[in-house]
Amino acid sequence: MSLPDETFGPFDGRVWLNAAHQGPLPRVAVEAARRALQRKVQPHLIRDEEFHLVPARLRSVLARLVNARESDIVLGNSASFGLQLIANGLEWKPGDEVLVPDDDFPASILPWTVLKHTGVVVRRIPTNDGAMTAGALASQLNERTRVVCVSWVNSFSGRVNDLRSLGSLCRNEGVLFVVNATQGLGSLTLDMGALPVDGVTSCGFKWLCGPYGTGFCWLHPDLQAQLESRQAYWLTLAGERWNEMDRRDDSSLGDLGAARFDVFGTANFLNFEPWTASLEHFLDAGLGTIEQHNAMLLDRLVAGIDSAEWWLISRRAPSERSTMAVIEPRRGSAGEAMSRLSRARIDVAERRGRIRISPHLYNSIDDIDRVLAVL
Ligand SMILES: Cc1ncc(COP(=O)(O)O)c(C=O)c1O
Fold first, then answer.
1. How far apart are alpha carbons 37 and 53 in whole angstroms?
2. What is the 203 CA–ligand 1 centroid distance (Å)?
3. In 333-364, which ranges are continuous DSSP H helix?
4. Structure pTM?
5. What is the per-residue pLDDT across 51-108, written as a single tens digit (0 to 9) for each?
């Protein structure tokens, strides 16, 4: 498939440069959603085995997405779901510390702050707009640090954390390294076979172009072994032996792998089927091809931004390129520029007085030139 991908939209003549907020559904996913809806209109079309097949297919495609084993994938409904299950599943001692970047998105922080009653201390560490070097992180670690949790790409600055160097440091120090990949995965590639990371979570409705209410989590087997789970879900336990569901007890929970942490309601036809179709579509297009296309768009965007008018908050260097360009006006307000963009039928986001432009596989060079002409 060649990019830009024209099986998205139509966008009614608008330019959607806001994947960091909401990824659109490709046509194959719309078709999958229609089929799922039709089966709910005519329930005789729903076959029993689909209660097993729908989550199984999604788990399989997610494993391919991040080069991981299916048994390490948890099906969720958001990015928060995965972080919350790690925070709730670990055994904590009073005084244990969790380190988070001071400027991170709340989804990466809140699951830890609610642990206050167990005596866990959440320390917000100073960063460069959400990103830090391994050296800076090293100076913050101490013998009480149990977890470091960062967003891969910061939602407000577009700055990216180098997972390899931060993860290696944490591994050497015996600290768990947990990543919220929401603003990276789908545009950037992630290889769980090769990274020193313990847990990764992501929502599915931004760069992964799924419906709202989708998400997943990848858990290293060693982390799985440390997590206590006080849930047992009949549907996951039944698995493909649907007919034997009433003979199942919780004794085989341990054989389920990470699936024992799944969100309930995993035969989620209306959400999981279109999301699976989107993810298969991404794999067909080639994750590396999407990454290259998006990098090309970002490079053109960043090269064309008038530095007399705008500060570039996200980074320019290819080694620090993330998924979005974030710019701040040197004079005037972001709101005023947003009005001009809106009149030109260009959709971007305003966050903290900055403009965030997030192109994806359906965007073209022409889209980038349109935004540059208005800026
Ligand atoms: C870094 C980050 N994490 C998570 C989310 C969404 O969180 P959730 O999927 O838990 O609703 C966003 C969305 O705005 C985000 O930018």
1. 17
2. 6
3. 334-343
4. 0.97
5. 999 999 999 999 999 999 999 999 999 999 999 999 999 999 999 999 999 999 999 9
